[in-house]
Amino acid sequence: MTFFALMGALEQGLVYGIMVLGVYLTFRILDFPDLTVDGSLPLGAAVSAVCITQGMHPALSLLAAMAAGFLAGALTGLLNTKLGILHLLASILTMTALYSVNIRIMGGPNVSLLGVDTVLDPLMRTGLPGYYASPLLFAVLAAAVILALIWFLYTEMGQAMLATGDNRQMITSQGVDTHKVIILGVGLSNALVALAGGLIAQNQGAADVNMGVGTIVAGLASVIVGETVFGNRSLPRAVVAAVVGSIIYRVAIALALGLKIGSFSFTPSDLNLITALLVVVALTAPRLKKRFGKC
Amino acid sequence: MLELSGLTLYFHKGSINEVRALSDVNLTIHEGDFITVIGSNGAGKSTLLSALAGSYAPHSGSVTMRGQDITRWPEHKRARFMGRVFQDPLRGTCASLSIAQNMALALRRGKWRGLTRGVTAADRRLFAAEVKKIGLGLESRLDDRIGLLSGGQRQALTLLMATMVRPDLLLLDEHTAALDPKTANQTLLLTEHLVTSQSLTTLMVTHNMNQAIKLGNRLIMLHQGEIILDVAGKAKEELTVNDLLAQFYKVKGEEFSSDKMLLT
Ligand SMILES: Nc1ncnc2c1ncn2[C@@H]1O[C@H](COP(=O)(O)OP(=O)(O)OP(=O)(O)O)[C@@H](O)[C@H]1O
Ligand SMILES: [Mg+2]
Fold first, then answer.
1. What is the DSSP letter of B94?
2. From the CA of B106, how far away is ligand 1's center (Å)?
3. Running DSSP on this structure, what letter comes out for residue B167?
4. Could you please report the per-residue DSSP string of chain A?
5. B115–A160: do the CB atoms touch at under 8 Å?
6. Which of A157, A163, A178 is closest, CB to CB, to B97?
7. How many CB pairs under 8 A join A and B?
8. Which value, to the nearest 10 degrees, does the dihedral of the CA atoms of residues A137, A142, A147, A148 take?
9. Contacts of B110 in chain A (CB under 8 A)
10. pTM exceeding 0.90
11. ipTM for this model
């Protein structure tokens, strides 16, 4: 693996790491498997790209992306809690609807950001080469999100969210409206995913309606890999593990793509297959370990 | 203080599995009442407590609290003035959170939860003092995950949590049934202490007739979703297990010998 490939994987791992933190929030904290993310990642990209081309400051466009992501997640939460639709199905409905919405927002299947300023440009202007600038910026942002998330989870509201995912009967008896907590939590999660989407669009110079395919699977893979490798003994550790998992996952993908066996090699389109296999392995690894540990 | 009138509640209404779990229940709970609730399996005791707590909406009838109609209030809103301990020791606490975090959640029952610290230093001092009350040595383990505790320890904590913010109504659903005899007894003593020292209005479900007679100032017996016996004050003090059994044969007749649950 070349140095550039490694920096590339690091950059991807960090920026997608923000998405993984969102997936961690729903999947692990709220116990709410949320497929909205496949739609809210391109939603964030679309909103950010369109705002920038309309003349908004690229940093502000990220806030707009987060707001849009929040609404998308909150909609999934509403469908689940107020209409009683199963969480998985509720999120698939929002995700499906977002495909159309994203095309509406962009006025087509994609928007190019070539030649316009992004959040990365101020850093590049200092003379820093691109392969340092983006990992650096994304590392700072990922660290900020990690700190904010840990801080939030230790607030009164955050504790109520943890309790909602753990024991809904208990926290209801303590006077908490779990519907509100779920709507807020799924909203916050998708705000993070949309933030990642906006950053990715700005980094690669385009937003595309199909860029969200496989987001949830990549997110789950990263969460599980992170837990397995880095551990989840304490809450802060588990949060950091999500981003660590994301980096490991992207490096592993880069390695797999560079692999050549005879005339066979993987192409980027094999990515989803590899990821799905990785998730299956990661999910069954603990069970296999137990079985082989016994004999 | 709290009044149920004509309360009827079905499960699976309209299907072949329809169960009429509560049937035209009328009950007035007075301030300071300590009511023990008995009845055979499936009599509707848990359903009665759930209907009070707001877990299930009744099909007819009303629940009135201090003159206010709360029939349509959701469970989390009623929780403001209710403390509850469940039959299942795992239901009242969060396994993945620490003792202190669980207690902090209970300390804010019915209050707005904002962006201030979930557990403050002052909270911790309070919890250490509170936990000493149950005498299980948990005051040095405030940061242990609740999942590491035994069922009895969890149930005692749940009881403490239910009373930390004074509840207007305390609901106890066979809260010692899943515990071993010794722990059950300790938990019962703690219950008696907490209820009498704060003179809490309490409903306590039990399968133990002696307990039902010994504790509280009032006893009600449920059968097939109806209150078939309601004795208070002097009459309750003079009540014997035999009286209860006699009452019980009267409604159940020949089924007496099959119902050993009531004899413990
Ligand atoms: N969630 C539910 N869904 C369907 N039926 C229920 C439900 N809960 C209770 N029932 C039914 O309602 C009736 C009353 O049940 P309830 O749990 O109130 O009895 P109980 O007096 O608490 O009995 P036990 O002593 O066994 O705890 C029973 O026939 C029961 O099968
Ligand atoms: Mg019961």
1. -
2. 27
3. P
4. --HHHHHHHHHHHHHHHHHHHHHHIIIIII----TTHHHHHHHHHHHHHHHHHTT--HHHHHHHHHHHHHHHHHHHHHHHHTS---HHHHHHHHHHHHHHHHHHHHTSSEEE-TTS--TTHHHHHTT--HHHHHHHHHHHHHHHHHHHHHHHHTBHHHHHHHHHHH-HHHHHHTT--HHHHHHHHHHHHHHHHHHHHHHHHHHHTEEETTTTTTHHHHHHHHHHHHHHHH--SSHHHHHHHHHHHHHHHHHHHHHHHH-EETTEE--GGGHHHHHHHHHHHHHHHHHHHHHHHH-
5. no
6. A163
7. 84
8. 100
9. 175
10. yes
11. 0.92
What is the nearest CA distance from A292 to chain B, expressed in angstroms? 27
pLDDT tens column, B163-209 = 999 999 999 999 999 888 988 998 899 999 999 999 999 999 999 99
Q: Is A155 close to B115, i.e. CB distance below 8 A?
A: yes
- Name the percent of chain B lying above pLDDT 90: 79
- Contact between B160 and B130 (Cβ < 8 Å): yes
Pocket test for ligand 1, best of B19, B49, B75 (most atoms within 8 A of CB): B19
Residues B11-70 have pLDDT tens digits of: 999 999 999 999 999 999 999 999 999 998 999 999 999 999 999 999 999 999 999 999
